[in-house]
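JOB MANIFEST
job_type = single_chain_structure
chain_count = 1
residues = 91
[input]
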Amino acid sequence: MTANGDVYDNNADTAATSLSRQPQLPFGTRLRVTNVANGKSAVVRINDRGTYAWTVQEPKCLDLSDGVFRRLGGVLEPDVGHITVTQEILQ
């Protein structure tokens, strides 16, 4: 279960936001995320909260579902699972 009560779907167009993000994005917020390296983008809905701590390198960490991450060009391998994205709040 996700923090908003959804059953987690690893292929859904969803994301979790960092617990340290201020201000928090409300559940249901839609974002357009675009991979800076290749220009691929997707629209995701916030339905969960991550446990990732704020760092200088990742001040607004998003935890994308694996399906969205792959569609944006991410590689699902240990120690490779990060991409830099821009985000635009749609609602």
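[summary]
The mean pLDDT is 85.
The beta strands are 14-17, 30-35, 41-49, 62-64, 85-89.
exit_status = 0
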